[in-house]
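For this section, I looked closely at the sequence of one protein beside the tokens encoding its backbone, which the following lines show:
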Amino acid sequence: MTDGVYLIWADGGARGNPGPAAYGFVIEGPGLTRTLHGKAIGKATNNIAEYTAVIEALRKLKGLLGSAKASKAAVRVHADSELLVKQANREYKVKDAELQVKFIELHNLRLDFASVAFVHVPRTKNADADRMVNEALDVEQGSLSL
């Protein structure tokens, strides 16, 4: 039994691959104020940024709900990264060593919730999370320019 379904829209990106990278997410659900967040993470690949987005979104959701409520919550993660979704759903193996570390971190976070489902969505359906990524990169790159 779950207390409600919480929706996460997550995205990550890098300008260059690797290059300056950031993640963004949107969290929605029963009893929550819609939460949008984006943050630059330094130099990384697109795939690392995508995983970081989901990991940070799940951490944030757990913090918003508290451990007891999170343990009863169903979460649906929407991402436009087919690789991340297929790896999280165990359709693809995780071969890259850096991604294996992120995959294990993601797997461990999943255990804090009643269920976590991953859904691939087109980029156009993930616009708010994508905007958070680009805003974070713009701020970070603007602060580096003199």
